[in-house]
Amino acid sequence: MTTRPPAEIGMALEEVDTPALLIDLDAFERNLQHLANAVTGSSVRLRPHAKTHKCAVIGRRQMALGAVGVCCQKVGEAEAMVYGGVSNVLVSNEVVGVTKLKRLAALARQAQIYVCADDAGNVRDLNETALAYNVELPVLVEIDVGAHRCGVEPGEAVLALAQQIDQAPGLRFAGLQAYQGRAQHLRSFEERRQAIGQAVEQVQHTANLLSQHGLECELVSGAGSGTYAFEAGSGVYNELQAGSYIFMDVDYGKNLTADGTPWREFEHSLFVYATVMSRPNPDWAVVDAGLKALSVDSGLPMMADLPQSEYVGASDEHGKVLLHDPNSPVRLGDKLRLIPGHCDPTVNLYDWYVGLRNHRVEALWPIVARGAGR
Length: 374
What we know:
The chain is 27% helix and 24% strand. By secondary structure, the chain is of the alpha/beta class. Helix 5 links the parallel strand 5 and strand 6 (137-142). The mean pLDDT is 97.
């Protein structure tokens, strides 16, 4: 059941109920525009990852700035995007099982849907389902370029699968899915550059092999927020799947630039709004945002409003904030903004974004793909 929004249009920030998921619209829009500008005039297109925001409104805004479409990880996310008006979706993942394949093929009758594969049996199932639904499914072969998750090895294994797809009457070989996820949070600039350099070599070798056998890659898709500039400048990738750039989070803020300074290309625009529910002594306060309001898989959140404080622990409904200044003016009922450690799974805990400009609520956007894990 979708819950009621924690705010109303025109409401002052201080009136917003908590916990709430806030977007600083000015920072958010600067992030959107920055990445759009970065690829303007190049042969590289944006296909931002919707698993970050799970919101069709945001997906449409990204497309309005030139994105060709969005990526999704699950069929349920793709359905939410298409039903919300997004017309082009790459399911950048394998879709396995009769029920999911039927949903995917049905969705392909309503929008342009791409999907990935790394298994011959799955390709046969995709083909049978596409024929049954009278659609043609464009399929990318997922190639393991160092993440060691899904994907076949570069080279001959990709060729064999691509040829199978090309010969299947219900499918069309569309290119390569080549996302190096492990590289996104390598802290040093040089580590990230080297990891993507190795991925580019593997992709280029594989694309050349495919071309020698008459198979051209319409799409070479991949890249994340932490490495997009390397893929964009490679001359090999032509789609970028960066997602977190719109929000950023504490973990991405730990990445470093070439000169060793913190990476600040994009701004923090996503916050969890919390209320001080207890101030039991001068050393700490307790807020109403714990594990059910924040994902801590990549670390604890950071305090946005109190530089002399630190979020040090979370339980189900409580977050403990250490106050380094014992004379801190924090009082019961005060409201504070927290920067999530990891934006994607934090978003999945909420039904609504509260968009703010000049400390007033300007937008309420439903997170339509929340919980779309199937």
